[in-house]
Amino acid sequence: MEKPLQRFHSTALLAAFFLALGAQSIYALDIPPAKVQTPSRFSHAVWAGYSWFAGAKAHFSPVTSPYGDRPPPLLTEEFRDFARTLAENRVDTVFVFVGSMGDMGRLPLWPLLPESPLGRLREKAGDEWIPIRRLRYELARFGPPPRILAWVGGVRKGWDRGKIDLSDPRALEAAAWLGERLSQEDASFDGVHFNIEPTLEGDPRVLELLDKVRPKLRGKMLSFAGTMVDEELSRVAGLRERFWSSEYLAEVARRVDQIAFMTYDTAAKDASLYEDFVETQTRLLARHVHRANPSCEIFIGAPTYRERTGWHDPAAETAAASARGFLRAFEGLGPEKKQIKGLAFYAAWTTQPEDWRTVARALGWQEK
Fold first, then answer.
1. Which of 39, 40, 45, 43 is nearest to 259 (CA)?
2. Residues 145-153: what's their mean pLDDT?
3. Residue ranges of the alpha helices (H) in the chain?
4. Residues 300/277, Cβ–Cβ less than 8 Å
5. How crowded is residue 103: how many other Cβ atoms within 10 Å of its Cβ?
6. What is the predicted pLDDT for the residue at 143?
């Protein structure tokens, strides 16, 4: 791995972080766990933004530290409100974005650098003030012990804004290094979630990446963002990035502990059709994964983003429609049912209170 192109030093900003992160006396008090009513049938996941890794309202850049413009740090109330929302909606697995791999797989982990504001804060105040630990603390107050995974992104070279070339051995070594670094104690993650797009049907490079990363994780969880399955569509040239064969799905499932399936961007124009599609996909994905790896956890994607594209109609592909299709499939499953954890919401920053309410009603655990 090459060193980051820009390092950040600022005593003034460190002081600001200290005030925001370390000097809020209420946070240090021994507060009794809050009581939050949550359903018990499923536990869900959510893709969450970079701010929870950086501890500040900032965006990832591969060349510039997120602290360079002195973004405002996240406050205790923001951690607490986010944790309460997740707990109330039975989300206990959080994929926190740590950045996207670039050329040769490079991804600067700015918040983990010793000279970053967080690195210097750790020196002075201890690990308990690191954002991932603070988020874990708040989630545990409101619900069961959470799992927080480092979400590593990557767009393949040859695709829009894509830079990562998995045929380059250096990219695979970089992925392995990321897995090892993000599994270390000071990073505070429970595992790593890779989201490599697109992952084409039959692509051996992604399997190589998973094989490289697995031994570096120190026994922590290896998670992957998977796509949909269809034997016929996986052979269509323009759809191989959206549909896998059952054989390739099995190859991925054997290598990981968890798959969050992106069962959206289907071009569906009607909510009932999308609901039926999710039902079919949930059933197929669960059965294929179960045959390949009976211990692999499964999440089914639930979209909440409003951006309209040729592949996504936000009036048709809704989290509620996804939940209804998911539940119908779940109730008809056999032994594979135990591997299904719940829904995976994309994304935390687009999910509105009404989305949570409609999903709760669809899953039958909240009054209409």
1. 45
2. 96
3. 11-17, 25-28, 51-54, 76-88, 117-125, 131-142, 169-182, 204-213, 246-255, 271-292, 319-331, 353-363
4. no
5. 15
6. 84
